[in-house]
Amino acid sequence: GATTSQSFNIISRSDEDLPEITDVTVTPSANLVYNGNEQVLATLSGTKQGDTVSYKIDGNATEELKGTDAKEYSLEITVSRENYKDYVWTGTVEIKKAQITGITVTPYSGIYDKSEHDALTVEGLENSDIVTYIIDGKEVNDMPKITNAGNYPITLKVSRDGYAPYSQIYTAVISKANA
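^ thats the sequence. predicted structure below, dont judge the formating
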């Protein structure tokens, strides 16, 4: 028996040989501020019919690039197209903490009358707010009470989810009674 030998030259195309997808654009959202609602973190444009798009936020697959909480989000967008290298975009987008607004504070101001008074009147708080007061270097959870004549600097601190902490010093005053 005769032996026949043949040789084959197998050419495999590696991914590196494929052209890149150059017609898609990712636009990260800028200047996002917490508002309690879901917000779009980035938009993708230029995809073609047949493209496969996948999104990840903080490493987890997701259907939409949206976020609600005030934090930095790590995004990954992958566009797959037949006969092209995958297009992969990674970046971060931040939803910044909002400033607490709508709080009205009136420090007590009156003449000594032997009675105990709330040091501050605070309006505009939300039920979920965590409120503390600093008076005489001590942080307390309850409204400070003042009785004697004097100036009382009090720091009002408010913590609210999604918001930068609120901290402001107010001075309550009880004036001496006329003799």
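The CA atoms of residues 114 and 147 lie 6 Å apart.
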